[in-house]
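From the methods appendix. Each design record in this collection lists the tokenized structure first, followed by the designed amino acid sequence. Records were kept in a plain field format so they could be parsed without special tools. The example shown here is representative of the layout used throughout.

RECORD:
FOLD TOKENS (395 positions):
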């Protein structure tokens, strides 16, 4: 390999210090789009002489072109060293787990599918006037190392990973994975809540409140076990979009016994989106310090999201779901988001993964508009000390 001479225009620009020096030399701001351009040119080589746009590099770096490069969510930087996650406002975490699926597997490919479709997006939303690259620092930490065939070992891995990100002060966004991960993700958050409490707003067609399914904690069971934790009272669980022919009576029985809050699609359409969202935020926030949002993609009518394990006709329309999400996120103190049950093997042209991408991007934008991101200081409900034994013992 040929050595780099001292006169090379790229000498020293492989480090953050070198990049800063480059920006200073060229009098360029070190934020947003221009920062990405600087980094792309420094790390990806100056473009060939025939290229007139000198913002283009030889090797693809950053957002453009959308069809090239390594897929992270929204082309965000991949953070290999997770010890540095607290330097970012938001961290995307993939959870490729579908061992909790009871019928149609494939959600282990959900994080890959969502990241791939997110390449279609830019970080700017015209309607909201939000540019995620300019207004927050986003990273992708890659995937949790899950253990195929073992829900419990995977749950332990998921809880540890989410707890690490949450405790750092970065806002965790989890890409599932089947919905069994709802319990370990919330358990990870509860480990750093101290004496504080969390409410749950759960978008879904199914209640997911059975104790077991096929004798294990499956994707029909997360909220039974989550609400066993003292940090997540059952009365602060609000479920939006429930209905159809896939809501088991055993789960309904648990909801009634624990006094959870269930709004069907009919309830929501009859009372109106604003009233439904207001009720959800009030119930989830009553006596709690923050709210966790769990968005199962199958809450949306199956005609719009075929790529999921348990599609159910008659769900929310996409615009209804997105409006509900807006009203919830802008009016609640949100501590994390998960988007689950995207199953690319059943998808058509990636439209289900694209919907998941929209949910994630909209959530980040609403957090910016409502002033929740970027955080000015660590929220009082995030405790540095980890309490690993917050969940009920299992077998």
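DESIGN:
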């Amino acid at each position: 390999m040929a050595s780099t001479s001292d006169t090379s225009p790229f000498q020293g620009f492989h480090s953050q210090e070198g990049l800063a020096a480059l920006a200073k030399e060229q009098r360029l701001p070190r934020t947003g789009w221009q920062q990405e351009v600087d980094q792309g040119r420094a790390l990806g080589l100056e473009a060939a002489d025939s290229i007139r746009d000198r913002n283009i590099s030889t090797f693809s770096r950053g957002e453009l072109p959308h069809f090239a490069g390594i897929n992270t969510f929204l082309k965000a930087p991949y953070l290999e060293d997770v010890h540095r996650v607290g330097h970012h406002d938001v961290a995307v975490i993939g959870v490729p787990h579908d061992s909790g699926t009871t019928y149609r597997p494939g959600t282990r490919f959900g994080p890959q599918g969502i990241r791939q479709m997110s390449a279609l997006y830019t970080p700017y939303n015209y309607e909201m006037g939000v540019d995620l690259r300019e207004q927050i620092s986003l990273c992708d930490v890659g995937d949790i190392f899950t253990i195929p065939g073992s829900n419990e070992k995977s749950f332990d891995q998921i809880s540890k990973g989410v707890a690490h990100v949450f405790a750092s002060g970065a806002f965790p966004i989890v890409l599932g994975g089947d919905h069994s991960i709802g319990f370990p993700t919330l358990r990870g958050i509860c480990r750093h809540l101290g004496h504080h409490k969390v409410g749950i707003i759960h978008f879904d067609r199914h209640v997911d409140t059975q104790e077991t399914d096929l004798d294990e904690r499956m994707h029909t069971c997360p909220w039974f076990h989550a609400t066993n934790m003292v940090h997540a009272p059952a009365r602060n669980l609000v479920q939006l979009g429930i209905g159809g022919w896939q809501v088991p009576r055993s789960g309904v029985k648990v909801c009634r016994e624990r006094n959870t809050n269930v709004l069907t699609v009919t309830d929501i359409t009859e009372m109106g989106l604003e009233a439904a969202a207001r009720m959800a935020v009030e119930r989830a926030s009553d006596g709690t310090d923050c709210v966790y949002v769990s968005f199962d993609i199958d809450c949306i009518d199956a005609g719009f999201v075929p790529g999921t394990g348990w599609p159910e006709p008659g769900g929310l329309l996409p615009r209804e779901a997105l409006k509900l999400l807006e009203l919830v996120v802008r009016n609640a103190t949100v501590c994390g988001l998960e988007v689950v049950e995207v199953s690319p093997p059943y998808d058509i042209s990636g439209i289900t993964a694209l919907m998941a991408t929209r949910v994630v991007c909209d959530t980040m934008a609403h957090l910016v508009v409502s002033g929740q991101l970027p955080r000015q200081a660590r929220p009082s409900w995030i405790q540095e000390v980890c309490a690993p034994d917050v969940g009920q013992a299992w077998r």
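APPENDIX NOTE: Residues 1-30 have pLDDT under 50 and may be disordered.
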